[in-house]
Every structure is written in C-alpha cells, then in structure tokens.
Design brief:
- The protein has 380 residues and is of the alpha/beta class.
- Helix content is 32%, strand content 14%.
- It has twelve helices and 17 strands.
- The protein has helices at residues 51-60, 82-97, 114-125, 149-161, 180-190, 209-213, 235-242, 257-265, 277-282, 287-297, 305-314, 339-349, and strands at residues 11-13, 18-20, 23-24, 29-30, 46-47, 70-72, 104-108, 130-135, 144-145, 166-170, 196-199, 232-234, 253-254, 323-325, 330-332, 352-354, 374-376.
- β14 (323-325) and β15 (330-332) form a beta hairpin.
- It is globular and about 55 Å long.
- The relative contact order is 0.11.
Length: 380
C-alpha cells in the first residue's frame, strides 16, 4: 500500500511562478519526481477544486498579482487522464472568460490531443497568454515510468504547427541522459520546434535526498550537499550547456525559467536575473531580449519602504523588520522567512530578497535565495 497523499495548497508561490493545483496526484511514476515523498506519484488524481473555485481562489489569494506567471497543475500531469484533461479544458475556458490575463503555463510529458490543442488556441485568441512547456530530457521508461515518449516527441511539431508557443523543459539532468549521444538526440528534435530551451539540472528538495541518490549514487557523498544547491548537474551536461555547439547558436538556452518566459512573452526580467553571472555567462539570450531588459533596468521606479511594508502586510507579515538597500534593490531580513513568501515579494516588487532559511522549509532552495549550481563528476 502506498503512502497517504499529502496535498499542497491549491494556490501557492514557487520559485518562478504562482501555481494553481486544483487536481493533485499523478498516475505516472517518474522516479525523480518531487511529488514522490508526498505520496502523489502512481496515484489517482484527486480533484480539490472545480475550475470556477480555482479561479476564485486565485483572484483572492494573498500572493495574486496580475503581472505574475501562473503555472497550472504542477502536482499532476493534466494530460495524463480523461478526468484531468476535462478539468484542464474547463479551467482554461473559465480563465479565458474571466478577468485573468496573467501568462499561463502548462507543463506536460503526455500526449496533447486535438481537443486540448483547440482549447488552448481559442483561449489564446481570446487574449489569455498560454505557453506550453514540454518536459523532454531523453530519459527512458526505466526512469520515467508510464510516459509514452513517442507521443511526447510528437507534441513538438503538432504544437508548433498550431502556432502555440513551446518551451523545451530539459530537466532533470542525471548521469543517464548526460552523454553526448543522449544530448544530441534531444537537441536534434527540439531546436526545430521550440522557441527556446530551459535546462535546470536536478532539483533536490530537503526531504528527497534518499530518493535522488537511488538514481545518482555519487550524490550520497557526505562532502556534497545537493539539497543546498540551486540545482545539481553532471559535469558533462554542465559543460555542454556552457559551450553549446555552433550549430545551435540560433536556439536560445536559459538556466532560468523567468528569462525563458520573458523571451517568449516579450517581457522584461522581474526575477533579479538581469546582469547577474547567470544572465551574463549562463543564459544564451537573444540580443533583442538583452536590450529589452537593459532598457527596462534603467527605467524601473524606485522601490520604497512603503511598497515593501504594504506587500509584507498583504502576505501576512506586517511589521516584520528588514533592511533595504535602494541602490541594489535588496531587502534583507534577520528572521527566517518561507521561500514562497520571499519569492512572491521578489517577483511582485522586482527586488532581491535575502533571509535566513526557515528550519521547516519544504521546498528546494532557489537562485533567488542565493543558492548556486552544484557540478558533480560522475563515474564513467
């Protein structure tokens, strides 16, 4: 008997985006999945909120802001079952008919049938910006159990032909998909159809060390701390991404979802990435996007203590002491603050937030918390 499910909040804040999780539990069995220790993999999807309830909760939530990206169904794969697919199309139609015009992200490894393609198309036409992330990393059924990889690959040309923006989500990187042959197999397909690639390594949340070391034994080395890293990379994959071959020079690569979304949506950086080492040396960003972010950086309104005080009160932290450096737009707290609150404050006000880690933190450290990538040598 599997472990009892632990459901996440229906509306929450993650590193890059707001999330809406009205259905939770995934029938697939990807061995690296961050839902595993919650008892939400190889599980029947459970409907926790109707589409109408989901939109109402989103609009009244303390984290909601009309500029933030909203990712749907991050605690399931909405394309996995007839029930979840019907919920998805209903939710997109409700969003399309509402006042919500936040960019909407849908992340999947499953086949996207014609009725869902049609639903995405009609709601994009109604003014709802929808971007599809196709999570394709070149892993096999031994690791991504239950995934039809042929159907996943077929999504790329079908969505491209329908005019739906596609971001290739290249995660996780494990030793098994970091050989030159595995990388070239993936790139040979996605560069023809995706607007860009996001390569983020492997995320290891605080409760998932045993899970990930079962796939990647080197991470059990007591001298390493993968849970404190922004992401973990096999050295071969990291070096390939740092020196992308010339034949892929026209294909944008990002290590940050926020930058990929800014590129695809024609927006500017709001996540504190611009002009950082990740921006300058990590991301392979088109010149027009770099110019867009550089221009916006000179025109940002000053951030004030009144702005910060108001937003802290909105998210449940009135009168919390902090220090503000207006020049660097950095807010520093002496007391622990949950990552979800830190990320929301950072994204809404376009500031950098620093705070001690909350000892009960459930999420992995993000780049906005100051964490850096961990590069690991793997056995031949």
């Amino acid at each position: 008997m599997g472990r009892a499910p632990q459901y996440e909040e229906v509306i929450d804040q993650h590193d890059t985006w707001l999330v809406a999780n009205p259905v939770q539990g995934c029938p697939k069995g990807c061995r690296y999945c961050y839902l595993e220790d919650l008892g939400l993999t190889r599980a029947r999807p459970e409907v926790l909120a109707t589409p109408e309830e989901t939109v109402a909760q989103l609009l009244t939530h303390r984290y909601y802001h009309p500029e933030l990206v909203v990712a749907l169904y991050t605690c399931t794969d909405a394309l996995a079952t007839p029930v979840t697919r019907a919920h998805l199309t209903d939710l997109l139609d409700v969003l399309g008919a509402s006042t919500v015009r936040n960019p909407i992200c849908l992340i999947t490894k499953c086949a996207i049938p014609d009725d869902v393609v049609a639903c995405i198309t009609r709601n994009r036409a109604a003014g709802l910006p929808i971007v599809v992330y196709l999570s394709y990393s070149g892993l096999g059924p031994d690791i991504e159990a239950g995934i039809d990889h042929d159907a996943l690959r077929d999504n790329f040309p079908r969505l491209h032909a329908a005019g739906i923006p596609v971001i290739h989500y290249w995660r996780p990187f494990l030793p098994q998909n970091s050989t030159p042959e595995a990388i070239e197999r993936v790139m040979g397909l996605v560069t023809r159809y995706a607007a860009c690639t996001v390569a983020v390594g492997t995320k290891v949340k605080p409760t998932a060390l045993d899970q990930i070391t079962g796939l990647w034994p080197e991470l059990a080395d007591p001298h390493l701390d993968p849970r404190a890293a922004d992401s973990v990379w096999p050295r071969s994959a990291w070096e390939w991404v740092q020196r992308v071959p010339a034949e892929y020079a026209g294909h944008p690569f990002f290590q940050t979802n926020s930058c990929a979304l800014a590129h695809v949506l024609g927006r500017t950086d709001r996540a504190g990435v611009h002009n950082t080492p990740t921006c300058v040396t990590g991301n392979r960003c088109p010149a027009i996007q770099r110019e867009r972010c550089a221009h916006a950086a000179t025109r940002r309104p000053a951030v004030t203590r009144q702005d910060i005080d108001r937003h802290l009160a909105d998210i449940g932290h009135p009168s919390l002491p902090y220090a503000l450096n207006p020049g660097t737009r950095t807010v520093v707290f002496d007391h622990p603050l949950p990552l979800c609150d830190r990320h929301n404050l950072a994204q809404v006000l376009d500031v950098t937030v620093r705070a001690p880690e909350d000892p009960d933190e459930r999420y992995w450290a993000g780049r906005l918390s100051g964490a850096q990538p961990l590069i690991v040598d793997t056995r031949p």
